[in-house]
Design goal:
26% strand; Rossmann fold; 2 domains; alpha/beta; elongated; single chain; 380 residues; Phosphatase 2c, domain 1; five-stranded antiparallel beta sheet
Length: 380
Amino acid sequence: MPTILVIDDDPLIRMTLTKALSGPDCDVEVASGGIEGLEKAHSLVPDLIVCDWIMPDLDGMSVCKQVKADSELATTFFVLLSAKGAVADRIRGLDAGADDFLAKPVDLSEIKAKVRAGLRIRQLSRDLQEQKQILELELAEAADYVRSLLPPPLVGTVSIDSRFIPSRELGGDCFDYYWLDPDYLVFYLLDVSGHGLGSALPSISVQNVLRSQSLPDVNFYQPAAVLKALNETFQMNDQNEKYFTMWYGIYNCSRRLLTYASAGHPPAILISPDGDRYQAKPLRTPNLPVGMMPDVTYEIGRCVVPQKSQIYVFSDGVYESFDPAQPSAPEIPWGLDEFVEMLVDHADNLDLDQLLKEIQAARGTMLFPDDVSLLRIMFS
């Protein structure tokens, strides 16, 4: 049953509105002033408030502002009641957060109609809030499912650790690593365009295809052949206009040779010893994202991995900056160059959790504008 709270210092107005608005499907509560009205509003969480503007202890404008500032009361429909009938006064009331305005003397037929309309709007707000909560729960469950598909840490002559931090909205990041045979290790990371389930589902599909090695007539030891087959299979015209960037590498342990190909993806970064310091080498090939155009030939790159080296593979969320036009955007410069410099400066003693803390400190915010996926491959 909806609840209406009437706040007015005039007992006659309180009695009149109570009689006019009460019914078998509606409960009416009253308060004799603004302070009492706020107390009852917090305890009752009414569906609609009718509040007088001029009251001796706390005026209706102040009550309205405090009600709308409360997360539990923000969607309560608020009707401001006053003898002030000028347009400027109405504008002030609406700007304070009031949803509607009624001038005294009150026309009972009008206030009944406006209350009915207000209760309908309140119910719509409730329905939307419930749907929003359901959607957020489903997105959280989907993010948990995506996280459950990610591989555990790898330990051995080649060790791999990883982190996945979803943004506030589910995204399309996905990564994996496993041995094709005792001498060849594959590791890759992909990022589907966009956000939400529409991006997460294609990334899971790609991961399943690669894990099952179900691409026909494809040599999974050849990065270019894998990307070409994926491009033919996941054309954006058939995938709701979704394409994805990807970095795919094959490491031959006996030869210490890495063969790789990237498809519109940020470069992997090879951090290797150089005397008493470290140097960084970007590993990237100039290829289009997967699914963007048909009949694409992908180029590969090769490099010998020195001993005691590290390779970082990541999505662009790890160095992506907020839009500077946004009011909440940090003023601290942050990008790929700063991220690589951080990897070099901390190559000796930086685990992934500490790295993420350093990134958040450097960016001046704990939030990331996009999903963050990060792989660190350690070579003995």
